[in-house]
Design goal:
By secondary structure, the chain is of the alpha/beta class. About 30% of the residues lie in helices and about 20% in strands. A 10-stranded mixed sheet has the order 1-16-17-18-15-14-9-10-11-19, with helices on both faces. Strands 5-4-6-7 form a 4-stranded parallel sheet, with helices on both faces. It is globular, with a radius of gyration of 23 Å. It starts with a strand and ends in a 5-residue tail after the last strand.
Length: about 500
């Protein structure tokens, strides 16, 4: 076949039925696809006294126009939240909860990393859960404003300076803790002591995991992100260059917030009726590279961007010899069956006419038989492998790199797709290196390769956790690692399908 083609940039649909390429243009000109909640942003905020005040000042700021230092087509102005999203956002939260700074100071300096993260998370999660259970005020989303020291000390490889360490009252091995999880001790004290060691040493992932069953939506933000001017270094520079990116930061955070409170910022224009996309997620449950145990889940996405995550079983899905993950027939069937049933519930009992399963590895016979068992004859089931590739590079005669949307068709079932590249509308390439393509292969089922490529390119524009022209990978795989990290961050509900917004 060996054809070089260009796929037109997918358009997004906004209010008034208007379609345009750039989500920032669409939101500015036409507004979001729907109006979300009629009450505006009903926010709860939890943090230190300084953190809460910084949140309020930031909300005041985003209700006015903001500009990046390097303003232009690729970095458009942010005209204010209500102007863009057509709903109000008051700087005064409906609920605010203060976490004493002294308690954070103590917890983040414990010398045992498991207890350090668990206790720090508990300072926030316990207060949020209490507020959720009381139901005094309806809260759509909780803003968790954390001091930068929480980010510094509550990550997997963080260490506390020796002279600042606070000795933990006890210590336990991770293996002993997991044994107590499966076979609890007669003494409840031992079971309680084991809990910190049953969760991942990561504040963000652990907080998300511990709030899943309580259905509390969160937006975790570092104080320096929303108040960069208050965290200048000795050269007078803001952290991570955020002082030069006020508009970009506002675009990304507010779009994520609008999505989480129930609004749809946009959807793909022209996607076929009845099409459904599922991304398969695998994550090892241990850091042991020789362990075969892994958690499996599926992310189902519709053209609207709505996403639901279904957790499957933990089992010996990983092969350390070749680095591939594969399900057995029964777990594969059960995982996709739950996804199909959920689709039917949301579509008046109708099954999807097309179901594309995206993965980073090919599907073996046993696995594919399970997927096939879960769908009826009315559904065209297609398996697509998507991988980053550095095997081929293409260059233009001009100074700028290859166009985004170029594809090199190797056969009727495989192609390279450049989802990264020069964007004519922006007149720039939003990257630093020569763009590498995605390697796309229809490894199971039957579908036109051009249709598959067009769909994948469109799915790069459904990242509601940011407001950018397009991602390098489709949303089905974009957040696969993030979802896997939440699902393996600790003991979380097994089979309850949770909306995708709980994981980002």
């Amino acid at each position: 076949m060996n054809d070089l083609i260009w796929l037109p940039e997918p358009k997004l649909l906004f209010n008034y039925g208007q379609a345009i390429e750039d989500p920032r243009d669409g939101l500015t000109l036409f507004g979001p696809l729907d109006k979300g909640t009629t009450f505006g942003v009903r926010a709860g905020v939890i943090g230190t006294s300084d953190g809460i005040n910084r949140y309020k000042k930031w909300v005041e700021r985003i209700n006015h126009p903001l500009y990046d230092k390097a303003n232009g087509r690729s970095r458009p102005a942010y005209l204010g939240f209500e102007t863009i999203f057509r709903i109000p956002w008051s700087p005064q939260p409906v609920v605010e909860i203060e976490v004493p700074e002294s308690e954070i100071f103590t917890s983040i300096r414990l010398d045992d990393k498991h207890q350090r993260v668990y206790r720090t998370v508990d300072l926030y999660s316990s207060r949020i859960i209490n507020a959720v259970n009381q139901e005094e005020q309806p809260v759509d989303i909780w803003f968790v404003i954390v001091p930068d020291d929480v980010y510094k000390y509550c990550r997997p490889f963080s260490t506390v300076e020796f002279d600042q360490q606070i000795p933990a009252s006890y210590k336990m091995s991770v293996r002993s803790a997991h044994n107590l999880q499966s076979q609890p001790s007669f003494f409840s004290e031992f079971n309680l002591q084991a809990k910190p060691y049953q969760y991942e040493v990561n504040f963000h992932n652990q907080l998300k995991a511990r709030l899943l069953e309580h259905k509390a939506l969160t937006q975790i933000i570092r104080e320096s992100t929303i108040a960069p001017e208050e965290f200048l270094d000795h050269f007078g520079r803001t952290p991570r260059g955020l002082g030069d990116l006020l508009a970009s930061t506002a675009w990304n955070l507010t779009t994520a917030v609008y999505y989480k409170i129930g609004g749809r910022p946009w959807k793909i224009d022209g996607i076929r009726d009845g099409v459904c996309y599922i991304g398969i997620v695998f994550k090892q449950t241990t850091t042991d590279p020789n362990s075969k145990n892994a958690c499996c889940a599926a992310q189902m996405f519709l053209d609207s961007g709505d996403g639901i995550v279904f957790r499957g079983d933990v089992g010996p899905w990983y092969n350390p010899d070749d680095g591939d993950y594969h399900l057995r027939r029964e777990p594969a069937r059960d995982l996709i069956r739950i996804a199909v049933e959920t689709y039917q519930k949301n579509n008046n009992g109708k099954s999807p006419t097309e179901l594309f399963i995206h993965g980073r590895v090919s599907f073996n016979d046993d696995e594919w038989s399970g997927f096939s068992d879960a769908v009826g004859n009315e559904t065209n089931l297609v398996g697509v492998r998507i991988r980053d590739s550095s095997e081929i590079k293409l260059f233009r005669k001009e100074d700028m790199p290859i166009l985004r949307g170029m594809a090199y068709l190797r056969s009727k079932r495989s192609s390279y797709l450049w989802s990264r590249g020069f964007v004519p509308r922006l007149q720039t390439y939003p990257g630093m290196e020569v763009p590498n393509p995605l390697e796309i292969e229809v490894c199971r089922g039957h579908a036109e390769i051009r249709t598959v490529l067009s769909d994948i390119l469109a799915l790069t524009k459904l990242n509601y956790n940011a407001c950018i022209y397009g991602d390098g990978v489709p949303v089905t795989l974009k957040f696969a690692d993030a979802v896997g990290e939440i699902l393996t961050a600790g003991p979380v509900p097994k089979n309850s399908p949770f909306p995708f917004k709980h994981y980002i």
